[in-house]
Amino acid sequence: MKTKQPTQGVVYFAVDAWPYLESAVISAFALRQVSPQLPIIIFSNIKRTELQEQLSEFNIALKPIVIPEKERLNNVMVSRVIKTSLHTFTVFDETLYLDADILPIKPIDEIWSFFNHGNIALVPDPVPKMVDCVDCSEYISSEERDYTLKTCAADLIQFNSGLILWKNTPDAQTLFETWQKEWRRFKQQDQLALSRAIQETKNQIVHLPYAYNYPVSWLTKIFPIEQMEQMEQIVPDLTELNDIKMIHCYNSFTLEEQVFNKAARKLMPDATEKAVRCLQSSSEREFDMY
């Protein structure tokens, strides 16, 4: 009897704000170009029936989600409520979650082979040591910083939560449930909560190479770019880009330079053009919420 092949797919979330959905669609089109067969689902509470129909033609599903009003209390970032419960949304046996500001630029099909080493795989954060992370960020409250350092070793590896690869197994479900619990403790930093969850559950984490979640700021190590608004200086066919699979444009939604859009237009122009054509008619109107 043949063993059934596990289903595999990629999921995005775009909640509340049009720029998130816009970037998720562009990222999905880039992914569709480099890895044509992968199923892709974008979950969003932004209602866009016309866009939903257009994306389906490219085998990209835009599925509605409803955010309970109780989750909007106390100025909590709703996206983090969703992110820490990813396992409840996926329909795949093996799932790759991508932040909307991650830009695929090379085929990523080999990423599934990392399941040969474990059920959960993450890329270390650009600031990989826990002690450096909690000391360098002004956005971490003293309460959460102190609590995290009490529960996690200072040299513990901090993983970036912008890319999560997991297999639907009990240990992965336990990690997500613990992550949700830890995030609700302070309702601030999802990555610190993830680190505490990993520490508590003792899950084995497969370390993915930075090539799968490459910080856009590191391009300054490759190209002579003093400021990221000079993205037009990047030449897409330079050999240094050959090993990079996906670029993560951190904080691109809050920067005036629109780093993600510039990177997408420069590095994945055909995919970006297709995505923009799908988005244009929808972005001209006010959006409704589920």
* Low-confidence blocks of residues: none
Shape descriptor: globular
Major β-sheet profile: 7 strands, mixed
pLDDT average, as an integer? 87
What do you see in this structure?
A 7-stranded mixed β-sheet has the order 4-2-1-5-8-7-9, sandwiched between helices. The model has no long low-confidence stretch (mean pLDDT 87). The longest helix has 17 residues, at 18-34. Helix 8 (259-267) packs across helix 9 (269-283). The protein has helices at 18-34, 49-56, 78-83, 130-136, 142-151, 170-186, 190-201, 259-267, 269-283; strands at 8-14, 40-44, 46-47, 60-64, 94-98, 102-104, 120-129, 157-167, 206-207, 214-215, 246-248, 288-289. Helix content is 35%, strand content 20%. It contains 9 helices and 12 strands. The chain has 290 residues and is of the alpha/beta class. The chain starts with 7 loop residues before the first strand and ends with a strand.
Write the topology of this structure:
Layout: E1 8-14, H1 18-34, E2 40-44, E3 46-47, H2 49-56, E4 60-64, H3 78-83, E5 94-98, E6 102-104, E7 120-129, H4 130-136, H5 142-151, E8 157-167, H6 170-186, H7 190-201, E9 206-207, E10 214-215, E11 246-248, H8 259-267, H9 269-283, E12 288-289
Parallel strand pairs: 1-2, 1-5, 2-4, 7-9, 10-11
Antiparallel strand pairs: 3-12, 5-8, 6-11, 7-8
